Amino acid sequence: MDRRRDRRWPRQLEVRFWRRGDYEHPHQAIAANISRTGVFVRTQSVLPSGARLRVEVIHGRESFVAEAVVVRALKTPGHLQSVKPSGMGLRFLQSRELVEELLPGITAHPATEVYQEGFDDSATAAPSAAAATVAAAAAGATSRPPAAPVATPTAAPAATLHDKRLFRISYRSRDQFEQVFERDIATGGVFVPTTSPPPPLDSVVLVEVAVDGSAAPPIRLEARVVHRVEPSSGGGSGNLLVGMGVQFTDPPGAVERLRPLLVV
Predict the structure, then answer these.
(1) Dist CA 239 CA 235 (whole Å)
(2) Does residue 195 contact residue 154 with C-beta atoms inside 8 Å?
(3) 144 and 107 in contact (C-beta within 8 Å)?
(4) Cβ(14)–Cβ(58) under 8 Å?
(5) CA end-to-end span of the chain
(6) Closest by alpha carbon to 245, among 63, 70, 80, 13?
(7) Alpha helices for the chain (secondary structure H)
(8) What is the CA radius of gyration of the chain?
(9) pLDDT: is 7 or 222 the higher one?
(10) What pLDDT shows up at residue 103?
(11) I need a surface site. Which of 112, 161, 185, 258 has the fewest CB within 10 A?
(12) What pLDDT is stored for residue 5 in this prediction?
C-alpha cells in the first residue's frame, strides 16, 4: 500500500541540480515522477541521504528552482541500469525550514556541540541513570529540525572508552519532534547541528535524542555521518548552520525506538 501523503505524477522532466556550495557546475538529470513535496530524479551523480542541493525542474519554457534534501539515494550497478536506474528521491524544503536554517535563533537558543568520546556500546540499548540525569540537566536547551535540531552541552558520565562520539539533541516540545520525526527520522536519518567542524564522513557516532516533558527516557542510537556542513572560512557570507546529516545504522529499529518520544 502506498502511504505517501502527496500524489506522485509520472513525468519525464528536465532537471538540473547543484551540490551545496558548488553552484558553478550543474548536473543534468531526468525526473521520473514529481509531487507537490518532492521529485525523483534519474542520475549517475547520486548524493548521499541527507545531502542538501539546489534543484531546477524544467517543463518547456516554465521552470522553478527549489532547495531540497536527499531522502533516498539509489546507486545501481551499471549492468542493472536498464532495469533499475540510479537516482535520488528529493524532498523540497519549505520556506519555514530555510528561514530557521538561516536564522537559527528564531526557533532555538544557540547551543554548543556535545562532544564526548568513551561510551560503551551497551549504553545504546538502555541509558544509565547517570545518562538520564545528564539529559534532564540539559532540559533547558533546545534543538531545531534538519534544518535542524540543536545539540545541548553537558558533562558526560564515565564509561568504557572507544572511538564513538556522542551528540545530544533535545527537542523542546512533542510537536517540534513530531515534525522532525515525520520529515526526517522516518526516512532513516536526522540533521545534528554543531558549533565546531563535524566528524569526517563515514564516522560512526552516537546520537542521543530527548523531548522535553516526555515520559520516555532519552534514546541513544548509532549513526553514520553521510553529510557535513562546515563553518565558513574567512568571514563574510557563508554557512550560518554547521553540523552533519547522519543516517542511522538500523533505520527501522531507530524509528521504532524513537516513536515513544511522540507521546508526552
Answers:
(1) 10
(2) no
(3) yes
(4) yes
(5) 30
(6) 70
(7) 95-102, 129-137, 174-183, 251-258
(8) 19
(9) 222
(10) 56
(11) 161
(12) 57
Only one residue has cell 545504546, namely 124
Q: Quote the cell numbers at residue 163.
A: 572511538
Q: Say how far apart CA 139 and CA 118 lie, in whole Å.
A: 23
Closest CA to 135 of 149, 160, 153: 153
This prediction's pTM: 0.45
250 CB-near residues (< 8 Å, 6+ apart): 221, 222
pLDDT at 258: 94
Closest residue by Cα to residue 245 from 220, 215, 260, 225: 225
Residue with cell 547520486: 46
Which tens digits make up the pLDDT trace of 16-50?
A: 999 988 888 999 999 999 998 899 999 999 999 88
Q: Is 190 exposed, middle or buried (0-12, 13-18, 19+ CB in 10 A)?
A: buried
CA–CA distance, 113 with 168 (Å, rounded to integer): 8
Name residue, grid cell 533547558: 140
On the question of pLDDT at 245 being above 80, the answer is yes
Closest CA to 264 of 210, 219, 216: 216
